[in-house]
Structures are given as structure tokens and as C-alpha cells.
Sequence to fold (117 residues):
Amino acid sequence: QVQLVESGGGLVQAGGSLRLSCAASGLTFGSYPMDWFRQAPGKEREFVAGISNSGGSTYYADSVKGRFTISRDNTKNTVYLQMNSLKPEDTAVYYCAAVGGTAPAYWGQGTQVTVSS
Fold:
């Protein structure tokens, strides 16, 4: 079955950096665009960043543009999210998703990111 497993979350001070990873199995990884979403307590899940199946195109929410970078390694079936200049408002559970058609088809279980002020 399809599995997406996120890792790399944790507690960091404001201004710090984290790198999230999402390892995929059970699917033809290189055929799927991949997205990162996040959900803060009491808020709806929101799009953070996306990358095309080849890695040639990337997309970002305005709130993270210039601070976060999405990338992928199709030889390792892994997508990454490099997060720099973190802010307390970046605190959330971060999820990766494999996009089928126009919407996420598969989700990971999430990894917690907490940014202290």
C-alpha cells in the first residue's frame, strides 16, 4: 500500500531552520507531483508548497515564499521542505501529499514543527 512518512520536525527558536523529509513507498513516485501542507491548532489545513513530478516547477504560499524551499529526489522517492527564518506562526503539523489529478490522493501522518519566540 502507499505510505508517505514525514520526518525532521521538532522544536526550534524563531529565526532557525528545519528540513523536513517525506519518504514515499508503494507508488510510482516520479509520476506524482508532491505538496506540503500544514495545519495549526484551531485552523484549517493550508497549502505550503508544491513541486511538479520532475521537480522542474515549484509553487509556494505567499506566507512562506523566500523562506521555504521544496525539492525532491526521485532516485530516493523523497520530497523535502527546507524551512529557514522560521517564525512562531509557522508552528503547525506539516503533512506531505502525493497529488493525483488536481487534489491530494495520499497523505502522510504529519510531523510537528514548533517555533518558539
